[in-house]
Design goal:
Elements (H helix, E strand, L loop, with lengths): L4 H18 L9 H34 L11 H33 L7 H5 L1
Helix pairs in contact: 2-3
């Protein structure tokens, strides 16, 4: 049985918190390859977010159409779903841009594996 989406999301959030602690003050990054790998894996994670967010948005729309949603205050949930979709759409674009930027950053680091400049000049 697969984990529930909320559980997986908590795991992802926890992983980011752990990465923040693991890299605090430069810890965990001993070589340029460490930064290259970390940035690349984060790019892959960010690249999956637009699809995930679209799937959540489609589910919300389907649940609304099926009458499965309601608001605690008795108002029509269509406004809330519509508002959420605007932010989800924006987040999808932002995540795609993040993935692109991280991918570009990783490519820049692909050439940063040699010895320091001062050692080459000696």
């Amino acid at each position: 049985m697969t984990d529930a989406p909320g559980t997986l999301a908590r795991t992802a959030a926890g992983a980011v918190r752990s990465l923040n602690h693991a890299t605090l003050g430069g810890q965990g990054l001993a070589q340029p390859a460490d930064a290259y790998e970390l940035i690349g894996e984060l790019a892959l994670a960010a690249a999956g977010l637009p699809q995930l967010l679209a799937q959540v948005g489609r589910w919300l729309a389907a649940a609304l159409a099926a009458g499965q949603l309601g608001c605690d205050d008795g108002t029509d949930p269509a406004g809330a779903v519509s508002g959420a979709w605007l932010f989800i759409s924006d987040a999808r674009s932002t995540a795609a841009a993040l993935a692109r930027d991280l991918g570009q950053a990783q490519q820049q680091l692909a050439v940063d594996g040699g010895e320091p400049q001062e050692e080459r000049d000696s």
